[in-house]
Amino acid sequence: MMSSVFLSRLIGLARESVIAYVGGIGNEVGAYQVSFILPEILNHIVASGFLSVTFIPIFSRYLVNEQEPEGWRVFSLILTCFGSLLTVFIVLSMVFAPWLVAVCAPGGGMDDPLLFAKAVRMTRIILPAQLLFFIGGLLMAVQFAKRRFLIPALAPLIYNSGIIVGGLLLGRRYGMEAFAWGVLAGAMAGNLAVQLWGAWRCGLTYRPTWDFRHPDFKKYVWLTLPLMLGLTMTFSSEFLFRFFGSFLAAGNIAVLNFGLRVMLILVGLFGQAVGTASYPFLARLMVEKGVSGVNRLLNKTLRYLALVIPFSVLMIVLRFELVRLLFQRGRFDADATAVTADVLICFLVGAFAYSAYTMVVRAYFASQNTLFPALYGTIAVVLSLPIYLLGLKTMGVYGIALAVSISGILQVLWLFHFWNRHSHNPDRRKVYIAYVKLAALSAPIGLALHVIKTALFPDPASQSAAASVMVAAAVGCLFMALLAGAGYGLKVREIKDPLERVAARLKRKANGA
After folding, report:
1. DSSP character for 461?
2. Chain centroid to CA 448: how far?
């Protein structure tokens, strides 16, 4: 699964690169981003992204008790009821798409009737994919419950590949609409067809049923309802940058999207990968050792996730090179690189918070508490709206990106604070100290890298792609040397321990070879 996350991020980068090549930061890319707002709301309503949290424990209990046929009956019940509800929502959303898109993106950026019509059409193309995501999520959940991970790991890879192929094959003829068709095709292949095969290998049994009184159906609804109604940090960020971005020129939505995707690479490699791998251990520790066992793993993992801070600083120093190498081709020109690189600074300020959130929220889920994170998340999102509005009014596109970071930092700080109060976490101070320590250490390292890079390469806008690769490699090597030197010289465990583990592993492999 961690390999899948890594590869998915790489293919996701390729997807964004192709989008940049075809559309640059033009108005059509903004319309394409707006077309995801309504589908993502529907996806959130049926909690497709939380099926592993809510459904796996229910299905796993039947497997443990050797009652697998009843487990498949509950699977059929959830698929029938929620799938039918989602189908109704999709049909209604397609009918009322013009009005709903206008509500979701009310700013002047969508005032052009032709641009608005394209956003509505692409919304209607993407909407049916949400049913495929829901069905695929359940099919993947039963495979996870049976400890089958390979085929579910293919879903995001195939999905992103479908978007890329759609854009490359049809982009010249249909523009950004080609990517919308790629979304639908990728979801059908990766989230439905392949997962049907994987679930069939696990003994898939499905019969339509409507037994609303089944106790595990009630339990599923009870666990999932808070996730349906609540607003998570990730979902709210995706929605709010598009909502407030619609009040700017349409091209700014594309700039925000490209900047956010680069920041999420870091979050994916650190936070998402670690969170995905750690959740089964958190759930098991909660059963075996209670909250104290969960706290030990949570604190240790959060402390090492503080390494996101120095890597964020490195990406800020190399922001022009990164954006140029990832996106500058086709209609994505040097001016687009410059503004996206500057917006990226604002996003990277909050990268550590998004990484930490993936672990903190899983501690709640491991204790089967879905209500508080959902309720708290909703309140936090509402309270963050003035930050977005202030950012929009004072700094425009940069203010919205900074609002995403500030909102994320405040949310994860309070979520961790409430967890500590609830669990009486004795080592919480060590977590806070680790983040302050690495932030204080990263600032002079970043300043030194910036001074050296500026002195040697004063005009990044004139660099070729090959020169950008060499600059990034040189600065990256210097960064690792400075980070390792600081870690060993100042005895910073959060730096020293991971480096020693990597060195020991490489040594073992060398000896084995």
Report:
1. G
2. 31
- The DSSP result for 396-458, as a single string, is THHHHHHHHHHHHHHHHHHHHHHHHHHHT-TTHHHHHHHHHHHHHHHHHHHHHHHHHHHHH--
d(CA 98, CA 67): 47
| Contacts of 154 by beta carbon, 8 Å cutoff, 6+ apart | 4, 190, 194
Question: At a CB cut-off of 8 Å and minimum separation 6, what does 357 contact?
Answer: 233, 234, 271, 408, 411, 412, 415
- Rounded distance, CA 315 to CA 319, Å? 5
E strand or H helix at 478, and its extent?
helix 465-489
| 8 Å CB contact between 29 and 253 | yes
- State the amino acid at position 427 in one-letter form: D
What type of residue sits at position 285? Answer: L
Letter for the amino acid at 391? G
**How many other CB atoms sit within 10 Å of the CB of residue 338?**
17
In which band, very low, low, confident or very high, does the pLDDT at 108 lie, cut at 50, 70 and 90?
low
pTM above 0.70, yes or no: yes
Residue 73 has pLDDT above 80, yes or no: yes
Q: Max alpha carbon distance in the chain (Å)?
A: 71
Give the integer Cα–Cα distance in Å for 164 and 160.
6
What does the alpha-carbon distance between residue 296 and residue 317 come to, in Å, rounded to a whole number?
34
- Give the torsion sign (CA, 140, 143, 147, 153): negative
Q: What is the pLDDT of residues 193-211, one digit of tens each?
A: 999 999 999 999 999 988 8
User: Among residues 340, 248, 204, 221, which one has the least CA distance to residue 34?
Assistant: 248
Outline where 206-289 has alpha helix (H).
Answer: 215-229, 233-245, 251-267, 273-288
Residue with tokens 């086709």: 330
How large is the C-alpha radius of gyration of the chain? Answer: 23
User: Rounded to whole angstroms, how far apart are CA atoms 88 and 96?
Assistant: 12
CB 205 within 8 A of CB 71: no
Q: pLDDT per residue over 362-392, tens digit each?
A: 888 888 787 788 888 888 888 999 999 999 9
